[in-house]
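Shall we go through a protein fold together, starting from nothing but its sequence? Label the sequence line and the structure token line clearly, so we can match residues to local backbone shapes. Would you write everything just below, so we can both look at the same thing?
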Amino acid sequence: MHIADITMFWAPASGGVRTYLEAKADWLRDRSGVQHSLLVPGAGHGHGHEGDIWTLPSPPLPFGSGYRFPLRKQPWVERLVELGPDIIEANDPYRPAWAALDAGQRLGVPVIGFYHSDLPRLVGSRAGHWTNRLMNRYVRNLYKHFDRVLAPSQVMVDKLQALGVTQAQRQPLGVDAKGFHPSRRTGQLRRQLGLGEETRLLIFAGRGAREKNLPILLEALQLLGPDYHLHLVGSHMPRHLPDNVTRSENFVDKEALAGLLADSDALIHAGDRETFGLIVLEAMASGLPVVGVRAGGVAELMAPGTGLLADPLSAGSLADSVRRLFQLDWREMGQQARRHIEKNYTWERVLESLFHHYLELTGATHSRRAVNE
């Protein structure tokens, strides 16, 4: 079986989509009888090819943090047709997705649309809510053409089905449970910040985007006071911070992030509109309990005994939940969080369930032994 992925969500510091595609590529590389190709934007004027990754020249997005936006659909269609896959997966809602549909029709192969982002909400938060109806129509008109639509959380499946995309199904993402592990705890972050053992060290990592509700997070830390400290990790974080909040100044790679998480006591997340919440999996894999909010994809990821949920958009409720967490056996909750990841969210478990979508759509026969090799 030849599987082709296509996306414009590919940049040096890109997030969850690239993490997912790289994990999938590594996993598929060890499967017998399986070939994988990945088509993404690149620089230059010609076609590029390195290993399983194929690139097509695309101009950079202004202020786009390294992302590139394809202007013409046809070169992407032609490249997919030349690759000749048995199934295509589109991992963005833009021009490459339409190219995947055209190539699938020409090849006579099934095409999956993976709906990673809530497009109407993202556009509405930047351009205004007047765009919601327009973007809902766009999403419906695009995703109704796919043979199957996958979304990382039930929240997103419900939204798609409400728009009339009836073939939407939940397919969670996973986490590198070896890379993110409690054994990476060294105490270096606490020493670096000059914190005593009695101070509870919270962490949040992600983009400093509006949907992360960082002002609420900072207000909660002001309410918590000096017995609690929050360390922020990621791009575009606020510069004016309360005395008990710090941030990492530079880009933090996966290995460094794993160390920062393991050195912390708990993850705190105020986002109420997450389509999934990969950082929650990474924190739980690192042995951390989570304080999140009762909304969006984050709430779906947390099982009983792995953390606490606060009311959305309430700094007071968030602060109360943090206090309550540390009155409980929070270390045992962190261990339970780790067990929850090992049982449900390792990449091996998640990608095996994804592979069965491919088998169903292609009608291929592939033994469980071969899938697990």
User: Anything to note?
Assistant: The domain at 182-344 is CATH 3.40.50.2000 (Rossmann fold). The longest strand covers residues 35-42. The chain has two domains: 2-114+346-372, 182-344.
